[in-house]
Specification:
Length: 80
């Protein structure tokens, strides 16, 4: 599942492990502004689930929370 949220592009996916579970993962890319370098963040394995849909839903929730915190951190830095 790929979507844009605020000024980020999010790619949520599930990694199927040998033990039969699905690990939630998200790759977050900041949409670069003019003269800004490309930046991305890979979550690694967030949590394990018995099915792919639950893993992707977890990755989506985690990514949105991460983006909100990152946006707040940038806003807080800019206002100081």
């Amino acid at each position: 599942m790929q979507f844009d949220y605020k000024h980020f592009h999010i790619d949520c996916r599930a990694r199927h492990a040998d033990e039969g579970v699905y690990y939630a993962r998200a790759k977050i890319t900041r949409i670069p502004r003019k003269n800004e370098h490309f930046r991305s963040h890979d979550s690694g394995d967030i949590d394990a689930f018995s099915n792919e849909a639950d893993a992707i839903a977890c990755a989506r929730s985690w990514a949105i929370e991460w983006c909100d915190e990152a946006a707040d951190a940038v806003s807080g830095t800019a206002s100081k």
